């Protein structure tokens, strides 16, 4: 569909100016914005809401592949370039359904 990219991190591996939460996927940290992800996904909103007050704002995503999660973040964040192979699009749709993203 669109040409693949060799680097899929796009800054999620280091905290950005608006990063206030962390997703842990396969032991790796992805720095994200809680409010944005909560607005996009009712599943992630529930996970963030269940974090105990005063603890680190971290959500562990089980049964999600790291590369697919990074692709998903690239897909839903508005400022990222949307270059995906057709196979990735199918994975993104499946993950979006699991996370209840409209």
CATH superfamily: Potassium Channel Kv1.1, Chain A
Structural category: alpha+beta
For the largest beta-sheet, the strand count, sense and barrel status come to: 3 strands, mixed
- Helix content, binned percent: 25-40%
How many domain units?
1
Termini separation comes to: 22 Å
Quickly name the level 1 CATH class: Alpha Beta
Q: Would you list the SSEs in sequence order as H and E? A: EEHHEHH
Unreliable spans: 1-9
Q: What is the mean predicted local confidence, pLDDT?
A: 84
- Architecture per CATH nomenclature, i.e. the level-2 architecture: 2-Layer Sandwich
Strand count: 3
Protein name: BTB domain-containing protein
InterPro entries: BTB/POZ_dom, SKP1/BTB/POZ_sf
Domain BTB: 19-85
Pfam families: BTB
Question: What does this molecule look like?
Answer:
Strand 1 (21-25) and strand 2 (28-32) form a beta hairpin. Helix 1 (34-40) packs across helix 2 and helix 3 (66-76) crosses helix 4 (86-98). A 3-stranded mixed sheet has the order 2-1-3. With 102 residues, it is an alpha+beta fold. The protein has helices at 34-40, 42-49, 66-76, 86-98; strands at residues 21-25, 28-32, 58-60. The chain has one domain (21-98): Potassium Channel Kv1.1, Chain A (2-Layer Sandwich).
Provide a short characterization of the protein structure.
The chain is an alpha+beta fold and 102 residues long. The chain is built from four helices and three strands.
């Amino acid at each position: 569909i669109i040409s693949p990219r060799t680097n899929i991190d796009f800054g999620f591996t280091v905290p950005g100016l608006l990063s206030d939460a962390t997703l842990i996927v396969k032991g790796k940290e992805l720095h994200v914005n809680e409010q944005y992800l909560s607005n996009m996904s009712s599943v992630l909103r529930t996970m963030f809401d269940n974090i105990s007050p005063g603890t680190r704002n971290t959500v562990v995503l089980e049964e999600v592949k790291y590369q697919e999660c990074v692709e998903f973040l690239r897909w839903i964040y508005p400022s990222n370039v949307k270059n995906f192979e057709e196979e990735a699009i199918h994975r993104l749709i499946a993950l979006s359904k699991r996370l209840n993203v409209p």
